[in-house]
Amino acid sequence: MTVTPVKPAHTEPERPVRRRWRAWLLEGLSEQSARHPGPHGTPPEEHEGHSWWRVMCLTGVDYFSTLGYQPGIAALAAGLLSPLATLVLIALTLLGALPVYRRVARESPHGEGSIAMLERLLPWWAGKLFVLVLLGFAATDFMITITLSAADASAHVVENPFAPSWMRHANVWITLLLLAGLGAVFLKGFREAIRVAVLLVGVYLVLNLVVLATAVWHVAAGPEVVGDWWRSLTTDYSSPFAMIGVALLVFPRLALGMSGFETGVAVMPQIRGGTGDTYDNPAGRVRDTRRLLTTAALFMSCFLLVSSLATTFLIPAEEFEKGGEANGRALAYLAHRYLGEVFGTVYDVSTIAILWFAGASALAGLLNLVPRFLPRYGMAPEWTRAVRPLVLLFMAVSVTITILFDADVDAQGGAYATGVLVLILSASFSATIAARHRGHRAATAGFAVISAVFAYTLVTNVIERPDGLKIASFFIAGILLSSLGSRISRSFELRAVNVTFDEGAERLIDEVASTGPLRIIANEPDERDEAAYREKEYSQREETHIPDGSPVLFLEVTVQDSSDFTADLNVTGEHRHGARILRVEGPGVPNTIAAVLMELRNRTDRVPHAYFNWTEGHPLSHLLRFLVFGDGEVAPVTREVLRRAEPDLSRRPRIHVG
């Protein structure tokens, strides 16, 4: 039985227009706790999903779009050592991030990602708060991906030689228009986003192949540029060891080149997988996700290495500086210089399009993460399980960030790198723990080393660009405050997904119901001996005037984890010392009692009566105990939960307190 609040009888019917708008906005809203959240939850059986290479294009709009600015970042950070620093980045990608996320795909095949893996390590409220902090960094990564990519796309617009003069200082407005277009695609539907991503990635990679092949041909035709670069390099650095040392020091600034791995795992449920896949064993989906991650990493590594060499050899160093023609658009510079303004403009349009849609990958990650965690914790309204309201919310946040940062790419880069590195570090740490639990010693040692490298990279990045951590702290604070506020406001809901009775409980309920209304005595399951049950029944009959001869049921609730919000309630029945007892585990005593009373009413078609004792103590301390530990002053909270769940007084279970 699914427990849902009953709509008040006096509520006026919604107007047709408002009803249609609400139905469209909340389309796809799921009442299940974790099976089908967001657009990337586990698809229903009739949904076939997509080929792995199509889903790769969705994550690739983020991952591959970094070619638009990564070579320029590498040149600014490492100068002549840009190719060597890029090699270090490629090594860390193929030997670090790729193995980590292949392990994450195996351990969380339904798109939960490393955050869910770490959630299992910490019990009670500590685990929930830890997840909220990680969600803050994830929100930083994904939201800044959306705004930074759109801002970089607008920069390509205004830098194009054919752009009209009135666009030269319209970065903010262009960025806002691009964000509006991105939101419109997701409001239309997720399948449309996949189609757009496949087209954009295909065209963009082909154009990049043309640009890089042309650059390689020019380097081969004029090999003196390689000699000039090597002479400058040996002049500036005394030995190869010095070059390697400097490259190791500067490569953390290139960390943006590893973005996209987390969303690659997040959208796993959209991959078709194998015909024999089941929910408990989606082996085909895991295999295809690993194929997706490996293919994307290999493609990107090749593109990064060749682009770094080409831009270092062919572009003067001063052009990479702020205000230079290659600043933030190194490959576009090569396209215009060697292939003409027409092809360069086509390349610009492709770059603008993929940078604009790079936010789709990040938005997909957000639409997957939020419904998976926050509503389940009671830390977000139920409407956050629906896609369209979340899209509107995230677009509003994106607009705010764009205006605050004046659509400046450099101002957002630190926050972007911080979010990316925190997620990769959390993934590598969770992979280490998972390998250790499975007894894989070699894998454990390898993932531990990878975790140490990413920890160094993160610390270095934060020291050099502390603004990233400051921006992330705002996201973390926002998520913590809004989540805790939502949890408090929703604490008086029933919070039960299903209530079921075993055979013993059904037998006891039928015995008592055959004599009249059900009379339930709430009892704390402390000392469960004969004297305790007799004393409890005697005091309740004396204080609350239970009719003599009327049989009673004891209801005992055990709180296993009060930090959980919703749960399936399984009620068991037993005879003990002559007492009829119903036992159940739930996340909160009052909410669980209220849910059981409502189901007893539905099952017997009679309004049950519940009997309580007042609890000594200050009301505020009891409220805090209820919010944190799930108990406190049970009687008035149970009554309030029932009042909100059942507006009809004649149908509402009765509460008696003595």
From TrEMBL:
It comes from the Bacteria. Keywords: Membrane, Transmembrane, Transmembrane helix. The keyword Transmembrane helix applies. The chain crosses the membrane at residues 73-101, 122-150, 170-190, 197-217, 237-256, 292-315, 349-370, 390-407, 413-435, 442-463. This is APC family permease. It comes from Streptomyces mobaraensis (Streptoverticillium mobaraense). The lineage of its organism: Bacteria, Bacillati, Actinomycetota, Actinomycetes, Kitasatosporales.
